[in-house]
Amino acid sequence: MNTAIIRAFSASSLYFRFHSLDSLMSQPVPSSPASLLPVLVLNAQADRRLKLGHLWIYSNEVDVARSPLKQFEMGQQALVTTNSGKPLGIALMNPTSLICGRIINRDESHPLDKSLLVHRFKQALALRELTFSEPYYRLVYGDSDLLPGLVVDRFGDYLVVQIAGAGMELVKNDIIDALVQVLKPEGILLSNDHSARALENLPEYTQVVYGSVPEAVELIENGTRFMAPIHGGQKTGWFYDHRVNRAQLQQYVKGKRVLDVFSYIGGWGVQAAKAGASEVVCVDASESALDGVEQNAALNGVQDIVSTIHGKAIDVLKQLIAENERFDVVVLDPPAFIKKRKDQKAGEAAYRHINELAMRLLGRDGLLVSGSCSMHLSNNALVEIVRAAGRHLDRHVQIIGQGGQWPDHPVHPAIPETEYLKAVFARVYLV
User: Fold this and answer.
1) 236-283 pLDDT, tens per residue?
2) 3-class SS at 36?
3) Between β-strands 187-192 and 362-372, what pairing exists: parallel, antiparallel or unpaired?
């Protein structure tokens, strides 16, 4: 074997995934990493959306006669070209999905490897350090940080990583090495026990992959301390996305009685108590989450103000209504009621029902904070749900504030799906 062929072998480990030794011997020496990748050819005119900034490639946009999708492996990197052969970038492939490719880099000379990951992590870190004075935030937010299928939450010296795509799973060792190089954490936890992995035939697992990671880690949000259960908690153990909305709530709660529904470990409720609420009641269906509420209340010295009710939200709200309970502020932060388009009608009905129950618990001139993390529910639709709930109960509604995602969940302007979070602050009263 000549020296040129030896150089080809060492150029990239990706080459061995797609070419046999015989084909390698018969091919010319590649001149760049892009030539080592299989080619995904788009139909004529199908490149327009990508040129406008989008990162997703749909299966019906592929020229399958020239680049059959069945030739690609799950998670494989591919060079994407126009129908005329002009390179558009490198994509991670899922040949069995409607979204069959996601652009990882528009520079075809740099495939996804440790070097690119280090660069992306440094870019993401620069944004977060510009915004936050303390190291508690979402460090990587998938497509918005040009890292599709990857989420990283930072809890000081500890990182929790979630991988949803096969392409990222194939380079998980590079992900770990790059995070260690950029952040030098004490520990990294792979929290890959979520259902999204099934879409790319990935197994679910949780694993400490670097250093040591305690069962719960501390974070500080809006001046309030929390212990987040990153082993076995929901998602990564904490929800950083509502940070700015929880900060906005603080101006309305001093001396008020607050009900925090779907409280998890007290993100809204404990912060309300710390901000001067006279009483806070947290409701959740998880007993372990309510144990977290009590722990976090004690951590901030507000344990005498915060109490908990265990049960399903609908059942608890109905029981409180039957008992003629009233609150000055009710916070609704439910899970996504609309996970897919087919859930739209039923999900919107569920949002309206929960908002009506919450309004019935408000005292005179009360405040409703209605949140949604359903990507398929627009901000205007949530406002309409709040309006309709108020009119059905013959109450006047005033929208006094609206909130969305904080900069550690940046929105990709070409991908509306990256903007999923909304919160409506509504004053509700009888005319």
Assistant:
1) 999 999 999 999 999 999 999 999 999 999 999 999 999 999 999 999
2) helix
3) unpaired
CA distance 156 to 137: 9
Angle between helices 267-274 and 287-299 (to 10 degrees): 20
d(C-alpha 274, C-alpha 222), whole Å: 10
Find out whether 156 and 183 touch, Cβ atoms under 8 Å: no
- Measured CA to CA, the distance from residue 390 to residue 428 in angstroms comes to 7
Roughly what angle, to the nearest 10 degrees, separates helices 344-360 and 313-322?
Answer: 30
- Supply 139's token pair: 């460090």
Whether the Cβ atoms of residue 143 and residue 418 lie closer than 8 Å to each other: yes
Task: Give rounded-to-5 percent helix, strand, coil for the chain.
Answer: 35, 25, 35
The two tokens of residue 133 are 């004075």
Residue in the structure block whose two tokens are 């269906």:
285
CA atoms of 330 and 90, how far apart (whole Å): 47
92 touches 112 (CB < 8 A): yes
- State both tokens at 352: 């309206």
Pairing of strands 257-261, 327-332: parallel
CA–CA gap between residue 339 and residue 376 (Å, rounded): 7
219 touches 190 (CB < 8 A): no
> Which residues are catalytically annotated?
373
Separation CA 334–CA 352 (nearest Å): 12
399-411 confidence digits (pLDDT tens): 999 999 989 999 9
Closest CA relative to residue 416, chosen from 373, 375, 374: 375
